[in-house]
Amino acid sequence: MIRDHWNKSAADYSEIVRQELTSDISSRWQHYVQNAIHHEGTIELLDVGTGPGIFPVLLADEHLHVTGIDLSEDMIEQAKNNIKTAGIEADVFVRDAADTQFPAASFDFIICRNLVWTLERPVAAYQEWHRLLKPGGQLLIFDGEWYGHHYHADRQERFQTLARYVKDTYQVNVYNYGGEEHPDDHEMMHHLYLSDKKRPDWDISTLETIGFTIEDVHHDYLDDITGKEERLKQGDITPVFFISAIKP
């Protein structure tokens, strides 16, 4: 289901990414990630769920080699095209996030953006990423809780309050992720493991159990990149978060 969904979305999503790469948002993303990375010398970074290759294009340079993987064949084709257009050096492969086939301790950093919520085996993926990191390696997770308002009263209250504010202030209707009015999304919500989990609490607990040390947790990190009011103007009220975790 997930692979088919992203294969169908690859071209449209790649166009969104290309527009983002030509806006000032890209430099803000670049700055945010670079500030979160603590390392000197040459860096090997794995971008899991690379999609059309936004992080390879933003981050790759002579000191930072990026390898991107994605389950979607069509996304990898888009990533190859975007990397070629950008004129940078990066490697991208079709791989499963929970079974990457890379040797242990291959990477200094692993980064993923808007991926974990889609994983059918997120615990196995976190275990795999722990295996792939070198000692002292850093995991950077950018994700969100798209469906929590269907399962938890406090999330539902937040959703309704912000949706009313956006409607009254900007005359924008907030997209109801997982709502019955969106049959494909509703089906996906019931299929995905993390839909009913309270996040990032679930992620923090799982990562610590696996052996990671949590370095930083930042709620609504996109407010620092796109701006809070700009997000609301676009009807984006999804609670997002950033986690930095270290493999001791």
TrEMBL record:
* Keyword vocabulary terms for this entry: Methyltransferase, Transferase
Question: Matching CDD domains, A to Z?
Answer: AdoMet_MTases (cd02440)
Pfam families documented for this protein: Methyltransf_11
Q: Which InterPro entries match?
A: Methyltransf_11, Methyltransf_Superfamily, SAM-dependent_MTases_sf
GO terms of biological process kind: methylation
User: Where does the record place the Methyltransferase type domain?
Assistant: 46-141
- Please give one Gene Ontology molecular function term for this protein: S-adenosylmethionine-dependent methyltransferase activity
Key word Transferase present: yes
Gene3D superfamilies the record matches: Vaccinia Virus protein VP39 (3.40.50.150)
Tell me what this protein is called: Class I SAM-dependent methyltransferase
Its source organism is Macrococcus brunensis
